[in-house]
Structures are given as C-alpha cells and as structure tokens.
Design goal:
Elements (H helix, E strand, L loop, with lengths): L1 H4 L9 E5 L1 H6 L1 H10 L4 E2 L19 E4 L5 E4 L7 E2 L24 H13 L4 E2 L7 H9 L1 H10 L2 H22 L5 E5 L12 H7 L1 H13 L3 E5 L8 H7 L3 E3 L7 H8 L4 E3 L13 H15 L6 E7 L6 H21 L4
Parallel strand pairs: 1-11, 2-6, 7-8, 8-9, 9-10, 10-11
Antiparallel strand pairs: 3-4, 4-5
C-alpha cells in the first residue's frame, strides 16, 4: 500500500472489496471465497467509541433508525442505509440547539490510543482510522437535501455557524486517530450528480475545501496518508483535492472522462478504485468487468503505483464479477511489470 501511494513500484496492485450488509445477506458464499483468494490489504482497529444514548433502532434494518446526532432515517429494505424524511433542523437558526455527539468520543484518550496502537501492531495490513468526517452529508441529514442546497447557496451566518460546530467536532475526532499508529485517516462527502458537481465549484471552494484542507494538514503533520471517498461526477474538484494533499480518492470513475483525469492528475494522486457499481458490477457477461478493468488501466494505471483495485458489492451486483475484477487486475500488473522489468 505504501509503495503504491508513494509511486515506488508495489509488488502487486493493492486491493479492497467493499460489501454492504445487503451483500452479506445475499452473496455471503461469494464474499467468503473472494476474501479467501484475494484478502484485503486494508484493516482497521477495533472501535474505541462509546455508545450514544441517542441511538435507537438498527442502522441497516427495516424501520426507523436514529443516529448519534439525533437524525432520523427511514429504511424500507434490509441491509441498506435508510434516508432522512423528516430533518430535525427545520429552521437553520436552530443550529444553536444542536449538540455534536461528543459523548461518543473516548473518555480515556490514553487508554483508547493504546488500544488502537495494539491493534495496529498486531496486524500486517494497512490500517485506516475509524473516523470519517462528512460535513456536507451531515448537513443534509440535519436539514434535508433541498434545504441544504439552499443553505449553501445563501451561505449566511447560521449556515457558517452550523458548519463550524460540525467541523470542530470532526477535528477533535480526526486528530485523535491521526495521533495513533494507524497508517491513514479518511473523510468523505458525496459531491457529484451523474454529470456535474452538486453545487458550484466556487461555493464548494469557499465553504468546504478549507475544512478538508484542515484534515489533510492534521494527517500529514502526523505522518498519515489521507483518503477521501466522494461519489458522482467530481472532476471539477480533483485538482483541488491534489492541492490540499489528499493522497487517495475513491470516486465513480465511469461517470467522468478518465482520459481528462489522467491528463490532469495521474501521478499526483492515487485512484482508490472504483469499478462501476451501476452498470458493470451487475453485468451478467463477465467480459464486461474485464473490459472495465482494462479501461481504468489504460488511462490511470502505472506500474509505479497510483491505482488500488477496489469495488463494491451492493444490491444488483453479480458477485461473480468480484473474482473477475481482481483476476484481471493481477493480469494487468503482471503484463506491465513484465514489460518494464522493475517491481523493486
């Protein structure tokens, strides 16, 4: 993993398969077989968070689930995450009544840090911290997506106050993990529609980019890599992510122009997957999955590094494609290193 992220010729392409609870319910045998043949290079420490008295229900169960911020999700399908139908902040001015879930953070930070460090020492995997700040998505959970869109376009004092409240909590959480022995810390926000950014890039750069820069600075000050996940067409902000120091980004490459991404940022950031889960992972013809791997490789792969073989199994996926994807990435690497003769 480190050699991939630092463009120092990894001996093979790192790999990671995501599988949401739905996949474990419906594709369990296939998942077990893939994990046996292609074990993940990623790991993580055990949880050091404390339970929140606000949480009620099952996060991936049918019915209502209340999370640690008090946001209420409604779910109609077992194994997937529900949606907020009735946001708890109907009036943005009520943000002053909000209380971040500080009660979930470790009470004894020294003991919690020691626990994380022991887990890291016991593993030979690349360890990511358990925190994952998501200010844009949290805003939507608190306000509802439509209200959040209006909020960021108006960008008044109340919005800035709410973002500051969230950010202060996330900084505390993020810094805790950055000071442990994990290899990386991460954050996320889904920023794209199928064709463009959800908000104007100028607004994104004013309101959210400074937060993400703070996370990157904390991570790098503690010699950690920074990973970010963001779905949709996010080509407009890729250069910004490079600028602020994101080391690896998980995005929906097949929504975007890969040749353009290669021209702009190849060699400057690691593409943490993915193989398209909308059309390719569900395909019945396994050649479709092989061709998809080759497309990513043609544009973005270099034997020096910069690509992680990653995909997700979710509703509609053909689990047989999981094996196909990893097998094809192994072929890509074998062919490339055979030509270049340098994997050291």
């Amino acid at each position: 993993m480190r050699r991939c992220l630092e463009f120092e010729y990894p001996v093979r392409i790192p790999r990671e398969m995501w599988a949401i609870p739905y996949a474990y319910i419906h594709y369990r045998d296939a998942i077990d077989e893939v994990r046996r043949r292609f074990p993940s290079d990623f790991g993580g420490p055990g949880s050091v968070y404390r339970p929140s008295p606000r949480v009620r229900g099952e996060q991936y169960g049918v019915g209502t689930y209340v999370d640690e911020w008090g946001c209420v999700f409604v779910n109609i399908q077992e194994g997937v995450h529900g949606e907020v139908k009735d946001p708890i902040l109907r009036d943005l001015a009520d943000w002053r009544t909000m209380k971040p879930p500080c009660e979930t953070l470790p009470d004894d930070r020294i003991a919690a840090r020691d626990s994380v460090n022991r887990d890291c020492a016991a593993s030979d995997r690349f360890m990511k911290g358990s925190c994952c700040p998501r200010p844009w998505e949290r805003l939507q959970f608190l306000r509802g997506t439509e209200n959040a869109m209006v909020d960021v376009m108006e960008a008044g004092r109340d919005l800035r106050g709410l973002l500051r409240l969230m950010h202060e909590f996330y900084l505390e959480e993020f810094e805790f993990f950055a000071k442990t022995d994990v290899d990386a810390v991460s954050f996320m926000d889904d920023w794209g529609s199928q064709t463009q950014l959800l908000i104007p890039p100028t607004v994104w750069r004013e309101l959210f980019k400074p937060m993400y820069r703070d996370y990157c600075e904390i991570a790098h000050a503690n010699n950690k890599f920074v990973f970010m996940h963001t779905d949709g067409h996010v080509s407009e902000i890729y250069d910004d992510l490079v600028e602020i120091g994101v080391d690896a980004v998980n995005s929906q490459l097949f929504c975007m122009d890969m040749s353009d991404l290669a021209r702009r940022v190849k060699g400057k950031i690691t593409f943490w997957g993915e193989i398209d889960r909308q059309h390719i992972m569900p395909a019945k013809d396994q050649q479709v999955a092989r061709d998809a791997v080759r497309k990513v490789a043609r544009h973005l792969y270099d034997p020096a590094g910069g690509v992680i073989a990653q995909f997700e199994l979710s509703p509609g996926s053909n689990p047989a494609n999981a094996t196909v994807v990893f097998e094809e990435w192994d072929r890509v690497h074998a062919e490339a290193t055979g030509l270049h003769g340098n994997t050291t």
